[in-house]
Amino acid sequence: MGIIQELPEQLANRIAAGEVVERPASVVKELVENAIDAGATKIEVELVEAGIRLIKVRDNGHGFYEDDAPRAFLRHATSKIRDEHDLFRIRTLGFRGEALASIASVSHVTLKSRRAEEVGFEMTLEGGVLTETKPAAMNVGTEITVSQLFYNTPARLKYLKTSATELASITDTLNRIALSHPEVRLAAYHEDKELLRTNGNGDLKQVMLAIYGRQVASQIVTASSKTNDYSLSAYLVRPEVTRSNKQYVTLILNGRSIKNFALTQSILEGYHTLLPIGRYPIAVLEVNMDPMLIDVNVHPTKREVRLSKEKELCQLIQDTVQLTLREQRLIPTVQPKP
Ligand code: ADP
Ligand code: MG
């Protein structure tokens, strides 16, 4: 006699969803990252009621095989890693194979997709249960629509903040992805209002212009440095323009926007006395390194990572930022009139 039993798949997914799908912004993040992993060069996001009523993400990536599509909604089902060795060389944004299963378990999902040389299809799921599949005419790529988010998890729905706060979180998420992937043309709309539009030409400075505006963009200085382990590019806004919180410091590691206290602190140290007390810079730091040196499998949202040589990287960042800003100080931004 035993009393322990395995939970039904749908229930297990809904429990797991609590970790991956905290709020509408989490859904936007996972769907847009999937589009990037699918090789999309153009991604469009549409939102209604801060994503609670509807989130639609359309991409021109490689699309789904119709046979594969139901499997994509199973937990721990992924095309991105195959075995344990792959876990140490992750180059894609996703690899845990749980986002679609989690999202679908707490919403209604429509997936439309077509691969080159295949016919398109449309598939609908309610609470993760497949309800219909039919042929659909469309271009190569994928369109995923998530509606009625958290319809079956009332506590989660209640916990959501105001629309304005949820929308701000979505915008922040989109901005970070845009900064991490300037080669992707990203456009996002909330009920006909444009939230973001990048041109996808690969120039990170132009993404900063799209997000922060002309005044900030005109104050960017760039720096780069390289060691055996790291290659680093910094886009530093001159300390004449500051903000009241650290949110405007963006860290990008191997194409993934991450949170890391020590790395952020090294940027701040680099600016050091150039910043007034209580003010923070606007800066984007891109670091590329061997994926062996990062462990991204720390948290389901993948925003936290562990670095093998964090101290070394911190020093490199601080030195690069400091040197660059110091050099800049010697060059006046406006030539004095004779
Ligand atoms: P993961 O991204 O960790 O692999 P997901 O649950 O996010 O897990 O997605 C499951 C699988 O569905 C992916 O591995 C990928 O093969 C496929 N997929 C998801 N989104 C897209 C997309 N926009 N275009 C093509 N394939 C996709
Ligand atoms: Mg994914």
Automatic annotation (TrEMBL):
Its domain of life reads: Bacteria
Molecular function (Gene Ontology), one example: endonuclease activity
All residue ranges annotated as the DNA mismatch repair protein S5 domain in the record: 208-326
Keyword DNA repair annotated? yes
User: Sorted alphabetically, which keywords does the UniProt record give?
Assistant: DNA damage, DNA repair, Endonuclease, Hydrolase, Nuclease
- Function, in words: This protein is involved in the repair of mismatches in DNA. It is required for dam-dependent methyl-directed DNA mismatch repair. May act as a 'molecular matchmaker', a protein that promotes the formation of a stable complex between two or more DNA-binding proteins in an ATP-dependent manner without itself being part of a final effector complex.
Q: Which family does it belong to?
A: Belongs to the DNA mismatch repair MutL/HexB family.
Query: Could you tell me what this protein is called?
Result: DNA mismatch repair protein MutL
**Organism field:** Exiguobacterium alkaliphilum
